[in-house]
């Protein structure tokens, strides 16, 4: 018997329902809804964990949030003065003439987005520098003062027209931070103006608005300015489906406050379908790398009511919505995450040589992890100075879209025998799993190869409830578990090694309340044996893995090749033989000294290309005798730590630029390899000299070396000495730095 005396009648009903559920003798007695569903729900002081769990199961997305979830894969476009200055953040005082745009091809943008399968684009209408990309009535710091179309150009207008043409939704990024309004002598940001009642929009002679709606707000100068610009964007370029705010503050002034609740009233009235990012609508995933959480709950806790909050802190913890987190909150709120990152190294375009572009594998892997992990994938594609997406970016987008279509356009469960509510394409049908052990089983018409399984809860009506699930396949006349994961939410994509089966079984292992599924489907991704790469750690242990992208900006730590090719096997040899399926199977790192390792990946019987790597003398016994100088956190020991991501770097005023290493014992040396760091390009050693010694005191010059084109090709370089020599001590002297740099760097040094 439940002895509970809650303070509120509604709460009393929820606890009674909970008690009925917990004490019910029949599983069928558990209803699909015990409470009315809400987008935001308060927790009471006497709520217990079980009642919080029930409430969490009844939090649902708003209409706009659900539409944002259905968009799944969307585009970001960072464009402005930074495109021409090659800066990530401008200072606000750039001459508008720097935006020297000759051509603009927003049709090309939208065609590339459509090819990728993107459904929405968000344009940086105003970035932190305060430069506006539309013909605003309220500033001259923008495209109206640039050479583009003699000041008559309007980037947002052209993009809006292309979006309508190609069926792409439009969103706007309007930076609350504004360096122009901070730095300009007559700037409005933080000017300590009084808060008075003002009419939005402020009428400008000769520029009337077609939309005659007006608002009254008590605001200061900058909030009035911001609201006026919001009014322009939301009434003259729409429909607008997302308004994107971030919390970046390159500089503050005058204790400026943002009156977001006023902004929200205006957005709700003028763009009723727009979801607001960075506030109570959608949230940042917590990184800019495309990293995803294994468990991404969209029901999150707040200490205040998010419907009335003005300031929103970033939610960056690994644990966002576990029961431990929810119980500690005061409000539960549905708030999807946007997994945002850039296709290029940086948010703005710099060049097509040094600025690397993500591979198709990388983008497709992020797509499956984000969209298939209960979040929205927001990928930035920065236009170049010709007003177009660069060819390499377009190719990656096209290939990604092809993979998405090839993999997910058709369900391999079409024609299967199972719950029709889950197998149809109707997003209103659903299946309530009331059994004590909820299971969904489907029988396929014939044996089918599968390596992807997609499952969705009916979050629009019932919220997200499943907290753990597993997938079984009928293999060799028995059920075999092939994949498992935690929550489901809007969408979960399970990836697993290729199987051939006639039956699948989805088991819900735990849930917050009665599970309600909306859709399931099975798919096949054509895996390709990936290229391989080798590494050796400080203990001399060799690892062989799918080749990682050399994309160096905000690395997410994921190995796309491994993620996409579940079930791949790697075979290797150390005796010079070409590896095959009869060679040693790589399972764990193995100790290996100097010599050559060859390896091959085999996937579903298909053999990839053979990879080869020559390892130098093991470095376990090496010690640094001295370095002529070193930057803090870039000490000399880092040049032989077997980690190419760390490096020694000399001081700028070091006229010697040298390092001395004790190899631990006397060895015969025939060659050496220099690995430059890839994160910097102005301190790679182009020319140098190698000296040897038996005692570390008497030195013999052995050879001078030259490495060309390092800036464009910062890869490991090997130099073979004119003749072999015996040495225990080695000195490397840097004589010339690429690009006339003033510092010397070494990521790794190897000897053979």
Would you kindly provide a written description of the structure presented here, covering whatever features stand out?
The structure is a single chain. This protein has 752 residues and is of the alpha+beta class. 18% of the residues lie in helices and 31% in strands. It contains 15 helices and 35 strands. The strands form eight sheets. Strands 8-7-4-3-2-13-12-9 form an eight-stranded parallel β-sheet, sandwiched between helices. Strand 12, helix 11 and strand 13 (376-380) form a beta-alpha-beta unit. Helix 5 (106-116) packs across helix 6 (155-166) and helix 5 runs parallel beside helix 12. The protein is globular and about 85 Å long. The model is unreliable at 1-13 and 19-29 (pLDDT under 50).
Count of DSSP helices?
15
Strand content: 25-35%
Query: Which blocks of ≥5 consecutive residues have pLDDT under 50?
Result: 1-13, 19-29
Largest sheet: 8 strands, parallel
CA-CA gap between termini: 78 Å
Q: Could you give the count of β-strands?
A: 35
Strand order of the largest sheet: 8-7-4-3-2-13-12-9
Mean pLDDT: 94
Estimate percent helicity: 10-25%
Rg from Cα: 30 Å
Structural class: alpha+beta
Query: What spatial form do the alpha-carbon principal axes imply?
Result: globular
What are its keywords?
single chain, 752 residues, alpha+beta, 35 strands, 18% helix, disordered N terminus
């Amino acid at each position: 018997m439940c002895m509970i005396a809650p303070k509120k009648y509604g709460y009393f009903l929820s606890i009674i329902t909970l008690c009925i559920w917990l004490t019910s003798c029949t599983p069928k007695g558990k209803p699909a809804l015990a409470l009315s569903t809400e987008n935001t729900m308060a927790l009471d002081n006497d709520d217990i964990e079980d009642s919080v769990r029930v409430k969490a199961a009844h939090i649902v997305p708003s209409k706009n949030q659900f539409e944002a979830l259905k968009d799944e894969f969307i585009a970001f476009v960072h464009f402005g003065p930074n495109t021409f200055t090659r800066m990530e953040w401008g200072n606000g005082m750039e001459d508008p003439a720097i935006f020297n745009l000759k051509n603009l091809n927003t049709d090309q943008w939208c065609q590339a987005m459509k090819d990728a399968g993107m459904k929405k684009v968000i344009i940086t209408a105003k970035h932190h520098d305060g430069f506006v990309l539309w013909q605003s009535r309220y500033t001259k710091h923008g495209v109206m003062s640039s050479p583009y179309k003699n000041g008559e150009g309007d980037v947002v207008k052209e993009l809006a027209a292309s979006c309508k043409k190609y069926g792409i939704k439009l969103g706007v990024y309007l930076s609350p931070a504004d360096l122009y309004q901070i730095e300009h002598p007559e700037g409005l940001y933080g000017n300590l103006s009084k808060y008075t009642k003002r009419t939005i929009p402020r009428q400008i002679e000769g520029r009337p608005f077609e939309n005659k709606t007006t608002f009254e707000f008590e605001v200061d100068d900058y909030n009035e300015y911001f609201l006026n610009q919001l009014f322009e964007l939301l009434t003259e370029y729409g429909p607008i489906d997302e308004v994107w705010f971030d919390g970046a503050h390159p500089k503050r002034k005058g204790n400026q406050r943002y009156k977001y609740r006023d902004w929200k009233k205006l957005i709700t009235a003028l763009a009723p379908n727009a979801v607001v990012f960075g506030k109570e609508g959608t949230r940042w995933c917590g990184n800019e790398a495309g990293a995803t959480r294994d468990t991404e709950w969209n029901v999150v806790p707040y200490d205040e009511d998010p419907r009335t909050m003005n300031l929103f802190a970033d939610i960056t913890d690994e644990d966002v919505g576990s029961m431990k987190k929810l119980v500690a909150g005061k409000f539960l709120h549905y708030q999807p995450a946007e997994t945002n990152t850039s296709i290029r190294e940086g948010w703005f375009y710099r060049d097509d040589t040094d600025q690397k572009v993500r591979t198709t594998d990388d983008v497709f892997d992020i797509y499956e992890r984000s969209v298939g992990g209960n979040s929205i994938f927001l990928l930035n594609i920065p236009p170049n100075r010709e007003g177009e997406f660069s060819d390499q970016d377009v190719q990656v987008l096209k290939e990604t879209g092809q993979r998405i279509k090839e993999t997910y356009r058709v369900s391999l469960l079409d024609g299967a025998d199972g719950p029709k509510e889950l197998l149809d394409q109707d997003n209103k049908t659903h299946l309530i799993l009331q059994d004590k052990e909820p299971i969904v089983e489907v029988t396929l018409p014939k044996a089918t190869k599968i390596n992807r399984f997609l499952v969705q809860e009916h979050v629009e009506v019932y919220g997200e409830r499943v907290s753990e699930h597993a997938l079984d396949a009928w293999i060799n006349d028995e059920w075999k578990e092939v994949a498992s994961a935690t929550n489901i939410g809007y969408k979960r994509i399970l990836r697993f090694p290729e199987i051939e089966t006639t039956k699948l079984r989805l088991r819900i292992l735990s849930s917050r309340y009665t599970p309600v599924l909306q859709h399931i489907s099975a798919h096949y991704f054509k895996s390709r044996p990936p290229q391989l790469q080798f590494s050796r750690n400080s203990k001399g242990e060799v690892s062989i893995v799918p080749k990682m992208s050399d994309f160096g900006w905000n690395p997410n730590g994921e190995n796309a090749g491994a993620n996409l090719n579940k079930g791949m096997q790697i075979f290797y040899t150390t005796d010079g033989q070409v590896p095959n399926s009869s060679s040693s199977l790589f399972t764990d790192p193995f100790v290996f000294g100097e010599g050559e390792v060859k390896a091959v990946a085999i996937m579903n019987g298909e053999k990839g290309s053979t990879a080869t790597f020559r390892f130098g003398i093991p470095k376990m016994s090496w010690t640094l005798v001295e370095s002529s100088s070193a930057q803090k956190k870039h000490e000399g020991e880092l040049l032989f730590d077997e980690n190419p991501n760390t490096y020694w770097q000399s001081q700028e005023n070091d006229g010697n630029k040298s390092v001395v290493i004790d190899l631990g014992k006397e060895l015969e040396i025939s060659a050496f390899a220099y690995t430059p760091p890839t994160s910097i390009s102005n301190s790679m050693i182009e020319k140098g000299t190698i000296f040897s010694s038996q005692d570390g005191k008497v030195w013999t010059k052995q050879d001078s070396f030259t490495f060309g084109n390092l800036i464009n090709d910062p890869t490991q370089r090997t130099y073979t000495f004119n003749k072999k020599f015996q040495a225990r001590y080695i000195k490397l002297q840097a004589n010339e730095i690429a690009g006339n740099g003033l510092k010397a760097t070494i990521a790794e040094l190897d000897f053979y």
